[in-house]
Amino acid sequence: MATNKTKSSKPVIEIKEMHKWFGTFHVLKNISLGVNQGERIVICGPSGSGKSTLIRCINRLEVHQKGDIIVNDVELTGDLKNLETIRSDVGMVFQSFNLFPHLSVLENCTLAPIWVKGLPKKEANELAMELLTRVKIPEQALKFPGQLSGGQQQRVAIARSLCMQPKIMLFDEPTSALDPEMIKEVLDTMIELAETGMTMLVVTHEMGFAKKVADSVIFMDEGEIIEQNDPKNFFNNPKNERTKLFLSQILNH
Amino acid sequence: MSTEMYKPGSYPNLPPPPGTVGFYGWIKSNLFSSISNSLLTIISVVLVYYLIDGIIGWFFFDAVFDADSKIECRKIDNGACWAVITRRVGQFVYGFYPEAERWRIDISFLTMFIAFAPLLYPDLPKRKWLLWFSGIYPFFAFVLINGGFFGLAKIEYSLFGGFMLTVILGVTGIVCSLPIGILLALGRQSKLTVVRTLSVCFIEFMRGVPLITLLFVASSMLNYFMPPGTNFSILVRVIIMFTFFSAAYIAEVIRGGIQAIPKGQYEAADALGMNYWQTTRFITLPQALKISIPGIMNTFIGLYKDTTLVVVIGLLDPLGIGRAALADTKWNGLSTETYLFVALFFFVSCFAMSRYSLWLENKLNTEHK
After folding, report:
1. Which residue among B273, B287, B290 sits closest to A116, beta carbon to beta carbon?
2. Counting beta carbons within 10 angstroms of the beta carbon of residue B154, is it exposed (0 to 12), middle (13 to 18) or buried (19 or more)?
3. Per-residue pLDDT of chain A (253 residues; tens, 9 = 90+)
């Protein structure tokens, strides 16, 4: 796929020498990363390598202790006002969907636009229906999440995030909790989203997805970014030994 | 002989074997599945028949519904002597509320259902308008029952009694304790140390003390703590104690519900940019309250029945009225009838609450609709 790295000069996400500890355990070590407007980044690595924690730091679901994270020119600090601005600009999709089970699919999508952004109910409904159509489940709008399949639930979760009209989307292992036959429908939705030029950070083990849409692939291990490269070079000619080992483990079975 | 051959993928859906489903199937598998089981069924039916025959006779066919005294009852028939109830039904319902003013209680009671309907049934048509009535109902009922405004005669609290007293104490306690319980549950989970400590202290104190102690405090000691000159009635003091007591229990029930909500729900709400109060209102409480319905209803029913404890501080609840009736030489010794009647009243109210909570649980169940 074509890369737009040259297109934008100023990064929308800038992480500078960031560290994070869980108690005394050093989870993220000296992370520096810049993400440009419209860039699609896939993060992979063995479990426990800190990849989920890294993207959860970007909307401050996890708090970092050292270094800077700047999103859309706003620095992430304890300031609640900044935090709310950033969170309404950054959408997130979780491994376990985290839909609100007591609300209908439509209400799941309209709740935050109405109460956080102050969108009138009618407009929020229209926007939600438009996005549910985009993820191809407008007919499920009045059902409850518990009545949908895993793949449908994850697509609702994507639509719910998009309803906030975010500038950046974070995906935390979006297909790991799905049955094999449902993975494709979610990946297709994500590919379509990538084609609209959305800035995306995706933690995933789906290497096919990485090859197809990523501008850049990051390999993490033990809290460090070991290697970052464009997908072609990353897969065909990894430089680091640990990357080679990881790739040989997940690709050859 | 079902050895028919089907092509793979074309096997039809067959009906289940006969006698395994439907009414006949149920009878067969539950009542007559084996010889010993069939014997048990027959013996039980015979036993139940004799029991019910005797009970129904005592309750209805051999019972006396009107007489001047117990002795007269016994002269007429040997069943229950319901005359003790029918002769004093006014007292059982209204206590010593003046007879000429009892219409005020009737109206308050009937309109209470209109006030509750929109709160209990969210799908009611014209709900928004009815909610306005629910909002003004407490003032409306207070004015009507208490009097002292608009030319209505003021009625002393000491005249309140009977089922009316139970309903006033129970309903007020229930309605007030739920919001306080919710706030306490949230307070106990709060990140603010002061709020959390106060909530924990309140809950632990209220749960750690027997209700009857609190009622004694309400009746005797509470006035010492008040500034001199304030004299608010024993009824209000008792209601406050009931409310606080059950609020503490409800807080713990709801806290259980809050803790049952998966962490992912909060993360999703956070990621969407919702703040604490938005998350609490739209995500936490709807789910926590739904999970807590059985526990909350348990506490409500407990509170409702505990209102009979006010008899120890001299308020005439239905049991107090019953005792007064039994103290009358005319009705001496009819405690079975009296207490059964009071029990029936409580059973009907509590059973209704329990059915409502089941209905609500079903309605809110969005998992497998």
Report:
1. B273
2. exposed
3. 444 444 455 788 999 999 999 989 999 999 999 999 999 999 999 988 999 999 999 989 999 998 999 988 888 887 778 888 888 889 999 999 999 999 999 999 999 999 999 999 999 999 999 999 998 889 999 999 999 999 999 999 999 999 999 999 999 999 988 888 889 999 999 999 999 989 999 999 888 899 988 999 999 999 999 999 999 999 888 888 899 998 888 876 5
Distance CA B347, CA B306 (A): 13
Which tokens go with B229?
A: 């000159």
What pTM does this model have?
A: 0.83
The average pLDDT across B271-275 equals 91
Structural domains in chain B? 35-82 (no CATH), 84-97+155-364 (1.10.3720.10)
Number of C-beta neighbours around residue B208 at 10 A: 8
**Phi-psi bin for A223: left (phi > 0), alpha (psi -120 to 50), beta?**
left
For the cut 50, the answer to whether the pLDDT of residue B145 exceeds it is yes
A 194-253 residues with CB < 8 A to B:
none
Is A87 part of the contact surface with chain B (CB cutoff 8 Å)?
Answer: yes
pLDDT of residue A248: 87
Write A23-32 long-range contacts (CB < 8 A, 24+): A26/A223, A27/A53, A27/A223, A28/A53, A28/A54, A28/A57, A28/A64, A28/A223, A29/A222, A29/A223, A29/A224, A30/A67, A30/A224, A31/A67, A31/A224, A31/A225, A32/A225
- Whether the CB of A72 is below 8 Å from some CB of chain B: the reply is no
What is the three-class DSSP state of B316? strand
- Residue A17 has a CB neighbour count (10 Å cut-off) of 11
Judged on CB neighbours under 10 Å (0-12, 13-18, 19+), A104 is: middle
Taking the Cβ of residue A10 and every Cβ of chain B, the question of whether any pair is shorter than 8 Å is answered with: no
Token readout for B211 is 């209700």
What CA dihedral angle connects B159, B163, B168 and B170, to 10 degrees? 140
DSSP strand pairing (A66-71 vs A11-22)? antiparallel
Residue B267 to residue A94, Cβ atoms within 8 A: yes
Q: Is the predicted pLDDT of residue B227 greater than 80, yes or no?
A: no
From the list B264, B274, B369, which residue is nearest A112 (CB)?
A: B274
The larger pLDDT score, comparing residue B143 to residue A32, is at A32
- Per-state percent for chain B, helix, strand, coil, to nearest 5: 75, 0, 25
**Chain A residues near residue B364 by CB distance under 8 angstroms:** 102
Reported as half-sphere exposure (CB side, CA atoms, 13 A), residue B156 has a value of: 4
Compute the count of residue pairs across chains A and B with CB atoms less than 8 Å apart. 74
Name the 3-class secondary structure at B161. Answer: strand
